[in-house]
Amino acid sequence: MKTYHLKAVEYGGKTFANCSLSLDADARKAEIKRSVGLFKREAVLVADLTWGLGTPVQVDGSAVRSGGVTLVADDKTAAEEISMTLQSPAPARTLVTDKLAAIREPVYGFLRKRAEGIEFLVKLKTDPRQALVDVSPSYAGLYENPALEYLMKFSTSLAEAHAKMTYAAAEVQETVGTPAIERIFAFVCAAGVFQDGLVTGTGFTEEVSAFLMQLGVGGEDIAETDVKKSTEAMLRRSDPLFSAVPAS
Q1: Which domain holds residue 96?
Q2: Contact (Cβ atoms closer than 8 angstroms) between residue 218 and residue 212
Q3: pLDDT band of 247, cuts 50, 70, 90
Q4: What is the pLDDT at residue 235?
Q5: CATH code of the domain in which 17 resides
Q6: Sign of torsion, CA 100 25 246 64?
Q7: Fewer CB within 10 Å, N- or C-terminus of the chain?
Q8: Is the domain of 102 the same as that of 204?
Q9: How many structural domains are present in the chain?
Q10: Does residue 247 sit within a domain?
Q11: Are 200 and 104 in the same domain?
Q12: Over the stretch 207-234, which tens digit does the pLDDT of each residue have?
């Protein structure tokens, strides 16, 4: 944490004079306070801001402009130092990588859980007798149809896995940025379409391939018909999405 004196801060349509700026380079956070009171001994929070990865930062003399905020430093040297801190890639990339790693398992967990249900639907379509035999050990008689009882229980567990994934995404979105989260959820949707295709028989379509290529994760065909194995093959492609370097 490093602190700078600011001659002025322009934020939220207001100008504040004689402020202090505390920068946390690792978290890319900035806390701006100004002194008030008769003897200027009381510090009041003006803004508590977070700079996302890739947020533009411009230096104009002693002024630093970024994200709707203008920081007027004591001199040009201080302004350049503040700018470099806000744009420092190393600590930010490490932090983003750690945050993305935190969402990887919930995403994988959701798609793997979904694969279990897809596998049952495929078997129910190709070998319904064996599908019912497979779920009979867990049949509690809550429904007349064992298949329906399995799917009702499964929908509950799938909803829980989905909630974990969305909660994890919300926890890290401020740090990693909305575009990174949107790419991950776009991949989840593409993987879901692919899994559905294993039930309908369409498999790995050209549309899914083209969409994955847009996400930068490779659109090569997945010929594997086993639901769980093909899902794992899809997950292995998602590595670029969980990197601090955006997929291209």
Answers
A1: 90-242
A2: yes
A3: very low
A4: 94
A5: 2.30.29
A6: positive
A7: C
A8: yes
A9: 2
A10: no
A11: yes
A12: 999 999 888 887 788 888 899 999 999 9
Q: Which single residue is written with the structure tokens 């630093």?
A: 64
User: Are 76 and 94 spatial neighbours (Cβ–Cβ below 8 Å)?
Assistant: no
- The per-residue pLDDT for range 144-198, each reduced to its tens digit, is 788 888 889 999 999 999 999 999 999 888 888 888 899 999 999 999 999 999 9
Lookup: tokens for 41: 């001994």
Confirm whether 248 is domain-assigned.
Answer: no
| 186 DSSP β-pair partners | none
- Does 31 reside within a domain? yes
User: Which residues, in sequence order, are bridge partners of residue 58?
Assistant: 65
Q: Which residues lie closer than 8 Å to 123 by C-beta, 6 or more apart?
A: 130, 131, 134
Asked if residue 24 lies in contact with residue 50, where contact means CB atoms within 8 angstroms, the answer is no
CA–CA distance, 227 with 235 (Å, rounded to integer): 12
Same domain, 59 and 111: no
CA torsion through residues 120, 124, 127, 129, sign: positive
Residue-wise pLDDT tens digits, 33-85? 988 766 566 788 888 887 766 678 899 999 999 878 999 999 999 999 998 88
- In sequence order, the β-bridge partners of residue 189 are none
Ramachandran angles phi, psi of 35, nearest 5°: -85, 135
Q: Considering 65, 87, 109, which residue would you say is the last residue of a domain? A: 87
| DSSP-assigned letter for residue 220 | -
